[in-house]
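Q: Give me a protein?
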Amino acid sequence: MDMIFQKTQNLYTPGGTLVVDESMIAFRGRLLFRQYNPSKSHKYGIKMYKLCTPEGFTWASSIYCGTGPTLGTLDKPGTVVVNLADSLLDEGRLIITDNFYTSVPLAEYLYGRKTDLCGTLRKNRKWLPVDVKEKKLKKDSL
């Protein structure tokens, strides 16, 4: 699979916007890193992280095989984002994530690498300023 990604990455350069998300490959057999997620259509399977273009082209992917090392102050989801997008950082791109990946340390790290981050943010995230946590927003306001 890595060989396929290397070949296609030599032929195609993504635009300014990238999306990080996870997907589940259906699998019910025995495997140490098989995941169970009741909210997915395939409840059992292999969890895969993907870096995609808005058009749906998968630029990079990695399979979740259990916990691994993290980068500095980044949490595990932040490390996943950086590992997937590392070759595309420092070029003024925008990375869009969901609330699983978005964090203040990730935004700061990517900002230092000339990359913007856009995504929903959980209120209970570590490092989130108190005034942001307590801010009451009305619908459709910023």
